[in-house]
Specification:
about 110 residues, alpha+beta, five-stranded antiparallel β-sheet, about 35% strand, flat
Length: about 110
């Protein structure tokens, strides 16, 4: 009986915590930079047509690391275009300006 009570507390807490992290990631400076870059990407336009949206999947990967002089943002994003969509593993860094260090199309 006690384990059921714990589950009623732990599971909702974990869900709320995950949704909070997801909301933080979608509103982070790194994700906004990647969105802007990919929305105007000529190479992606060749593959999937004009990019309509750049999304962070709900169950995708995301990591942001802050040090004293730089921020590194890593994520898998989904780019949706007029002719299809692609997933991209991307690493971007701010030091002091944002730039994309690595991207791998899945």
């Amino acid at each position: 009986m006690k384990s059921k009570k714990i589950a009623y507390v732990v599971i909702p807490f974990a869900i709320v915590l995950y949704l909070g992290v997801f909301a933080y990631a979608r509103n982070s400076e790194g994700f906004k930079f990647i969105q802007q870059e990919y929305l105007r990407s000529a190479s992606f336009e060749e593959k999937i047509g004009k990019v309509k949206s750049v999304e962070l999947p709900l169950f995708g990967s995301f990591k942001e690391k802050h040090t004293s002089n730089k921020t590194v943002f890593k994520a898998r994003v989904r780019c949706v275009g007029e002719k299809g969509s692609i997933s991209v593993d991307v690493v971007a860094e701010k030091n002091p300006n944002w730039k994309i260090l690595q991207e791998t199309i899945q």
